[in-house]
Amino acid sequence: MTESSGRSPQNGRATPSGLPPTSVDSDVDVIITTHNDGERLSEFLTNLPMSDIRELFIVDDGSTEIDTMGVLDRLEAEDHHVVRQDFRGASQARNLGVHISQAPFLLYLDTQTAPSGGFLAKASARLNGDSSIGAVYADGQRHGNGEQIVITEYDPSLLVTDTQFKPFALLRRTAIEKVGGWDERLESGQDRDLFLALTEAGWVFAKLASLGFTSFAEDGQPIPSSDLAITLPDMLRIADKHRALYARHLTSVIATYESALAVAADALSARSSGEFVTDAEGTAHDLMDQLAAARSDLARSEADGVHARSILADFDAARVEAQRQAEEAKLQAEEVQAKLQAEEVQAKRQAEEVQAKHVALEEQLTAVHREINAIHATKSYRFLRVPRRLYGAVRSRLR
After folding, report:
1. CA 358 to CA 114: how far, in whole Å?
2. Measuring CA to CA, which residue among 32, 188, 210, 54 is closest to residue 119?
3. For the chain: N or C, fewer Cβ within 10 A?
4. DSSP letter, residue 228
5. Dihedral, CA atoms, 71, 72, 73, 75, nearest 10 degrees?
6. Rounded to an integer, what is the distance from CA 14 to the centroid of its chain?
7. What are the φ and ψ backbone dihedral angles of 63, each rounded to 5 degrees?
8. Are strands 170-172 and 113-115 parallel, antiparallel or unpaired?
9. How large is the greatest C-alpha to C-alpha distance in the chain, in angstroms?
């Protein structure tokens, strides 16, 4: 956004159309995804707490209505960040929001839900204070009459079974990126799929005690839910994609369907006893019986699983004991090898000492031989001196 002719307040940036300034100190970018919502878009922008927003992005997913296109042109001319794409679905529009924004925390909105004042600052503080948190959410209220919208505390089993899942939350960018963002193969239920992926990745969900959002749904209309229009193929695709998580909470899934069928059966019983109603009521009871059978099968499977886990536990214990014995044997072998090496070094040292003594004795023996030879040579010379003298005397006399 560019500054208007008015003076920007400290640490803020002025925005067009008389909107409050955005904040350069905020860690939150807001992405509004829209499709043919021009009639509500302009008014919706005036309800945003701009002072808690770093940057605001509007991603248009292939709007075709002339009025909406005119509103987008006007907002773009007023220097709003407007990004347009061909109609490719909500998932791709949200993923595009990840790429074009830069803040560490992201809030995704449609034109029917806006954050309450103070929520973004508090949620941002929670995310900054705990790096394990991937999403921060809160209760909300309906615009006009102030009716409170209670969001249940986070529970993986409820996330799997809640048919009125509401995805409003401030999200950590790195959490979105690590799970691959929104699944662009889905045409519905994308938010539930993302939250399931965050759960499987180990991210924590934190709830604030204060109100977090305001719903602008008209009186008498249901509060918008991401799963109100989820298709059966997408529902099955999500369940298959997160089958391990669903399997861990299969009991809760069955209980949820049982409760829903019981409510449907009671509602049908309260109606007139027409043939269609009677058949439908019978079908509901049949489905309840099938779910009861499934629950029984699940109980048996869990019992078998307990037995299997017991066997695995015994196997693991035996494996650990075998590893311990192998480690002890290895240590003993290392000790023996070290002892043998020490004895080998000692024997080598002693052999070197014996060899040195042998060399010394050889040298002494050689010296003795030299002395003996010298003695023999000396005695021989002395013995020869006597005959020589006698020979000299006899010769002299003979002359």
Report:
1. 101
2. 210
3. C
4. T
5. 90
6. 38
7. -65, 145
8. unpaired
9. 182
Instruction: Say if residues 105 and 171 touch (Cβ distance below 8 Å).
Output: yes
The DSSP code for 5 is: S
Terminal-to-terminal C-alpha distance of the chain:
151
Can you tell me which residue has the tokens 């929670």? 126
Q: Are 253 and 161 in contact (CB under 8 A)?
A: yes
215's tokens: 């719903």
| Each residue's pLDDT tens digit, 230-270 | 787 888 888 889 888 888 877 777 777 667 666 666 665 66
CA separation, residue 3 to residues 6, 80, 82, 326 (Å): 8, 11, 17, 73
Alpha-carbon distance of 253 to 188, in angstroms, equals: 20
Of the candidates 173, 157, 169, which has an alpha carbon nearest to the alpha carbon of residue 206?
Answer: 169
Are 90 and 67 in contact, with CB atoms under 8 Å apart? Answer: no
Cα separation values, 277 from 272, 286, 288, Å: 7, 14, 16
Q: What's the mean pLDDT when you consider all of the chain?
A: 79
As to burial, measured by CB atoms within 10 angstroms (0-12 exposed, 13-18 middle, 19+ buried), residue 341 is exposed
289: which DSSP letter?
Answer: H
Orientation angle between helical segments 250-270 and 275-398, nearest 10 degrees: 180
Residue 355: which H helix or E strand, with range?
helix 275-398
- Could you give the 3-state DSSP secondary structure of residue 187? coil
Q: State the Cα–Cα distance between residues 282 and 274, nearest whole angstrom.
A: 12
> Which pLDDT score is estimated for 305?
65
Amino acid in the structure at residue 219 = D
Measured distance CA(187)–CA(35) in Å, rounded: 14
> Pseudo-torsion of CA 331, 336, 338, 339, nearest 10°?
140
Alpha-carbon torsion, ordered 100, 106, 112, 115, to 10 deg: -140
Give the DSSP letter string of 58-103.
EEEE----HHHHHHHHHHHHTT-EEEEE-S--HHHHHHHHHHH--S
- Taking only Cα atoms into account, the Rg of the chain, rounded to an integer number of angstroms, comes to 46
Q: Which pair of structure tokens corresponds to residue 234?
A: 């997408």
pLDDT of 2-44, one tens digit each? 233 333 333 444 444 445 456 668 899 999 999 998 888 988 8
Q: Which of 208, 226, 264 is nearest to 112 (CA)?
A: 226
DSSP labels, 34-70: ESS-HHHHHHHHTTS-GGG-SEEEEEEE----HHHHH
The owner of tokens 């977090």 is 212
